[in-house]
């Protein structure tokens, strides 16, 4: 009887395997439809109604081409889009896939590599010189431009001026500083106000990512796939800095997004180093108006590091399905070449694009009372141009999962080089 | 001594109750608060309930989503009860040489995670989309079909049928009932509690089902409640008060179904243990 069950298990296992592999096989065949049939309606998937969805709606208004088609904007959560795209594209049926989709820059390369024929190149459609240089690296693949760069993930340091003042510092004192200087100021702020300097989430190394990009480094080599962890000086420095923050006891530990937002909304922290898309969340606490300023991101204390970095940000992609010509036309006549659209985007929704010609417009020069009359958008655009370009490669989140445990070991007292060699080995084994 | 033990038990039980009820309490409190209060961890009821409800119903299509979820959950539950009980009845009452082998294969199929069959399943539905749009991609039919019955429910009904008195089947046959007659007129009324228990589980599974509806449904007007809630949380600055309100509304139907059938549910579960 035992034999029978073993056989049964084997048969079932084979059936499952066969089912999986046949799904993969068909990928290239199904999605590479070369027909150029036009459609009446093109669909676009994106997340966040207040930001990306609103941007698409604005783009529909601003469209100045002569194509005759409807654009249907569909809202999906980012994780949901990833799940849907992966299932749809790997099943090889183009049924139900959108024409335009928004993909986060960290994930773009893995999609472009996994489904090479699924995306429609925009190389001849847009002028890639018009966009911030660092975005082009992440949105192109093997010499072809696939993505239309959208929002800037330019990172900045949001600081509470009132807390700084209490500790005897001015905004100038936190402008263009290194992380080490930041920690010293943090200690003084904590002593004077009792408030922590920032929040840290042990499961999310966004902090480390932003730090190493100030020095043009990433988790992977230039090729986008070889893990670059052991012996990566920027990463070592970032790990050391992270530990210093923990040791100096200037960080409030949070475990999810709502706690992160809650910490600065309730005035528990004196600064927020993160992407500029956090602005609406900071402004949510209206009673703190006038007590905030935004300064350039601190840099790693290393030769060559700059006071500018990036966190998140995403770009538009056209899928290689029926209607791709119209989708490309829509992209070109909106986000691809329309500076006025970008003016409305910053005015209406505070979405900061990476289309360089747009930065000259009046809307960028507006003074923001919440931030003490600072010309926030102009500043952010300036910093956007300085972000070091890195190839995010294929495995940002996979490597980060490994690094998270490495970081815990390091914080618990393990030797840094040993830890990084360990994660390097793990990453190499896992990502082969 | 006995009293000390009692106090200890009560303290322990109270703690356990607080731990399990707290999330619900927090959810209920949060629908009356502004988003910023929710993120700050406010535990007292606020005055924002009406605003939250207004935002919810004016900006989010929650009613169509509720209707979709209801249609899917009700049809899935009815199909599950009918098909799984027929199968469970057949497996237990009728004699056949291969039935145990088939039953074991069925049980083994329970061990394959859904994620593993999702891509081939999507492909299958994709290939029939053009000929049969009613059960193709982006249709409610496609959500219902793969979950219309599962090995678990067949197993559940078979186990419960073990305590169904077989003499009744004989008696029915002698009195001239057809096989289906025996099933519908004798088996079904006798097994009411089992049906109730299965109905609750099936309804809850279907109502809360996330992954498959997510990949197969594309148009916003066909969304189910879990998909809608997932969307609400996707924003860079989510409105937690509104999200909590949506979650409360989404929880009500399952809670209602459960309380309506609670008595039968408990009896049904006990039965399955005894069997």
Automatic annotation (TrEMBL), chain B:
Membrane topology designation: Multi-pass membrane protein
The ABC transmembrane type-1 domain, residue ranges: 66-261
Organism superkingdom: Bacteria
Alphabetic keyword roster: Cell membrane, Membrane, Transmembrane, Transmembrane helix, Transport
Subcellular locations according to the entry: Cell membrane
Gene3D superfamilies xref list: MetI-like
Pfam families: BPD_transp_1 (PF00528)
TM annotation in the entry: 7-29, 62-89, 101-122, 134-157, 194-212, 240-261
Family: Belongs to the binding-protein-dependent transport system permease family.
Protein's UniProt name: Lactose/L-arabinose transport system permease protein
Organism expressing this protein natively: Planomicrobium stackebrandtii
Native organism taxonomy: Bacteria, Bacillati, Bacillota, Bacilli, Bacillales
């Amino acid at each position: 009887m035992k034999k029978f069950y073993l056989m049964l298990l084997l048969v079932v296992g084979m059936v499952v395997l066969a089912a999986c592999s046949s799904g993969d096989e068909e990928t290239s065949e199904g999605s590479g439809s070369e027909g150029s049939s036009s459609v009446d309606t093109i669909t676009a998937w994106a997340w966040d109604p207040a930001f990306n969805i609103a941007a698409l709606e604005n783009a529909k208004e601003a469209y100045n081409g002569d194509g005759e088609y409807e654009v249907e904007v569909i809202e999906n959560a980012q994780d949901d889009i990833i799940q849907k795209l992966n299932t749809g594209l790997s099943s090889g049926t183009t049924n139900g896939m959108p024409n335009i989709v928004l993909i986060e820059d960290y994930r773009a390369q893995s999609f472009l590599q996994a489904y090479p024929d699924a995306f429609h190149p925009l190389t001849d459609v847009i002028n890639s010189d018009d966009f911030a240089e660092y975005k082009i690296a992440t949105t192109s693949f093997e010499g072809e431009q696939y993505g239309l760069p959208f929002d800037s993930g330019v990172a900045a340091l949001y600081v509470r001026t009132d807390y700084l003042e209490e500790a005897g510092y001015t905004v100038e004192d936190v402008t263009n500083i290194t992380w080490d200087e930041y920690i010293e100021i943090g200690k003084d702020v904590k002593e004077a106000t009792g408030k922590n300097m920032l929040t840290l989430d042990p499961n999310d190394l966004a902090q480390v990512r932003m730090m190493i990009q100030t020095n043009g480094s990433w988790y992977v080599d230039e090729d986008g796939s070889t893990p670059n962890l052991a012996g990566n000086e920027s990463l070592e420095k970032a790990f050391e800095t992270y530990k210093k923050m923990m040791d100096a006891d200037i960080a409030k530990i949070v475990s999810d997004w709502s706690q992160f937002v809650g910490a600065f909304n309730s005035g528990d922290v004196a600064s927020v180093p993160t992407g500029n898309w956090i602005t609406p969340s900071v402004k949510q606490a209206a009673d703190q108006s006038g007590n905030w300023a935004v300064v350039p991101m601190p840099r790693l204390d290393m030769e060559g590091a700059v006071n500018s970095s990036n966190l998140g940000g995403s770009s538009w992609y056209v899928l290689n399905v029926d209607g791709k010509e119209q989708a490309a036309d829509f992209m070109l006549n909106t986000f691809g070449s329309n500076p006025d659209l970008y003016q409305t985007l910053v005015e209406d929704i505070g979405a900061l694009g990476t289309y360089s010609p747009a930065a000259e417009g009046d809307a960028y020069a507006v003074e923001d009372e919440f931030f003490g009359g600072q010309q926030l958008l102009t500043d952010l655009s300036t910093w956007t141009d300085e972000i070091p370009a890195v190839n995010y490669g294929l495995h940002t989140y996979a490597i980060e999962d490994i690094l998270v445990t490495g970081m815990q070991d390091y914080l618990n007292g393990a030797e840094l080089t040993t830890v990084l060699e360990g994660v390097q080995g793990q990453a190499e084994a896992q990502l082969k | 001594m006995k009293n000390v033990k009692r106090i200890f038990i009560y303290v322990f039980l109270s703690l356990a109750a607080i731990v399990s009820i707290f999330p619900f309490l927090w959810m209920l409190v949060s629908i009356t608060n502004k988003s910023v209060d929710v993120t700050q961890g406010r535990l007292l009821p606020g005055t924002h309930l009406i605003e939250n409800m207004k935002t919810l119903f004016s900006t989010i299509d929650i009613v169509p989503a509720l209707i979709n979820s209801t249609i899917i959950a009700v049809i899935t539950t009815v199909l599950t009860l009918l098909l799984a009980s027929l199968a469970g009845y057949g497996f237990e009452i009728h004699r056949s040489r291969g039935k145990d082998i088939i039953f074991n294969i069925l049980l083994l199929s329970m061990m394959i995670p859904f994620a593993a069959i999702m891509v081939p399943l999507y492909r299958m539905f994709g290939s029939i989309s053009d000929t049969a749009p009613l059960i193709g991609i982006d249709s409610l039919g496609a959500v219902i079909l793969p979950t219309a019955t599962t090995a678990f429910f067949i197993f559940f009904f078979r186990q419960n049928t073990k305590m169904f008195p077989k003499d009744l089947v004989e008696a029915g046959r002698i009195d001239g009932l057809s096989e289906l007659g025996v099933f519908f007129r004798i088996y079904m009324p006798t097994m009411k509690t089992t049906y109730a228990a299965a109905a609750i589980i099936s309804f809850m599974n279907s109502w809360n089902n996330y992954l498959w509806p997510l990949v197969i449904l594309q148009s916003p007007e066909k969304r189910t409640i879990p998909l809608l809630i997932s969307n609400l949380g996707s924003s860079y600055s989510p409105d937690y008060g509104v999200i909590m309100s949506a979650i409360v509304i989404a929880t009500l139907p399952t809670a209602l179904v459960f309380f309506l059938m609670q008595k039968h549910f408990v009896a049904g579960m006990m039965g399955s243990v005894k069997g």
